[in-house]
Design brief:
Blueprint (H helix, E strand, L loop, with lengths): L1 H14 L9 H20 L5 E5 L2 E5 L5 E7 L8 E6 L5 E5 L6 E11 L2 E11 L1
Antiparallel strand pairs: 1-2, 2-5, 3-4, 3-6, 6-7
Length: about 130
């Protein structure tokens, strides 16, 4: 009985999953300061973009001409995440056509450059 108990405990111990920790924890910590500085730059320059959503058309109006990217992150499924390139040209508004975005709540992350400054802005949006 004792041997069966020992064998059972060995099998049980090796069947446990490996430690589930984030292998990129330190790298993310180093990048946190950069992201914080870019988010703070949005507040300092009062450069919050205006976001208007009309069905599958998304218009983003910036304070000045901008280039960058927009990421739409679906909280329920990483497979549905999408990324778009932003380029307003000489204007201040970028229009995104997003026919592949399913209806529901999305986490939108905007990263852009304008007037030699980098910005980061995050917002929850609803696609209808």
């Amino acid at each position: 009985m004792f041997m069966l108990f020992i064998i059972f405990m060995c099998v049980k111990m090796f069947a446990l999953p490996a430690d589930e920790y984030d292998h990129h924890y330190y790298e993310k910590g180093l990048n946190f300061n950069k992201d914080y500085a870019r988010e703070k730059q949005v507040v300092t320059d009062q450069a919050q973009p205006v976001i208007q959503i009309n069905g599958k058309q998304i218009n983003i109006t910036f304070k000045a001409p901008a280039t960058g990217n927009a990421k739409f992150i679906r909280p329920s499924s990483q497979a549905l995440d999408k990324a778009f390139t932003i380029n307003t040209g000489v204007g201040k508004t970028a229009g995104l056509l997003a026919p592949t975005l399913v209806k529901g709540r999305w986490h939108m992350v905007l990263e852009w450059q304008s007037n030699q400054k980098n910005y980061l802005y995050e917002k929850e949006v609803d696609i209808e």
